[in-house]
Amino acid sequence: MPFSNALIALTGVGREGQVGEVVAQAFADRGAELALLDVNADGVRARAAAIVARGGRARAYPCDLTDADAVRRVAEEIAATAAADGGRGVRALVNLAGGFAMSGPVADSDVAVLHRQIAINLTTAYCATRAFLPALRAGAAGDGALTRGDASIVFFASAAALPGASIASMSAYAAAKSGVLALMRAVAEEERDHGVRANALAPTAIRTGDNLRAMGADAGDGGGVRYVERESVADAVLFLCSPEARNVTGQVLKLE
Hints:
Layout lengths: L6 E5 L7 H11 L3 E6 L2 H13 L3 E6 L5 H17 L7 E4 L15 H30 L10 E6 L14 H21 L4 E8 L5 H7 L14 H12 L10 E4 L1
Parallel strand pairs: 1-2, 1-4, 2-3, 4-5, 5-6, 6-7
Helix pairs in contact: 1-7, 3-4, 4-5
């Protein structure tokens, strides 16, 4: 299995029915050991327990991902545990934490929505990336299972942050996700010599319970939305974190 015994850190996996649920299970099914971070303490513990119940390995780390010091402490704890377990580093960080909200026309918008969208989409990714980079560099240096350049960071942007997207009434969300893309490009350049790759996914609407309730049925089911399946998102994440993508960095993959 390509991720056998690899340590994978994932943020934003505390809610059932969201894409993080499927991504985390896909890694576990392929032999990875998971470190799950989320502000929702009960939810992230339930997610780890569900993975363990299916024969996987996962530990829950409740954490406010917008608090740089809190995230640093958790990352250091995870890194210390990994180092004590055969000197391993972290193989990959998947920044799944985020959320969507309409902000309305800029002229009529509430700046609190902008602050919230930046916090949950951009600040979480920034703090987690900053905190985990030392452990990712250690993973990229090689631990017997990895080769240099195999450590990976995956960011979650959005098709709304890509050129030509229609973003009327969602400027706060689009601005936050555009910031995620800028962060990814900076990390890809800065960490290349450390063997850490960084890429981003930019999906359109993903088929989740929340999206189905908010936007209605799939176009194939008589609705007006064409959803990206959660399993397709997981496949893309697995590829970007795999040795097959060892020469892929600084790229944005649109899913639609």
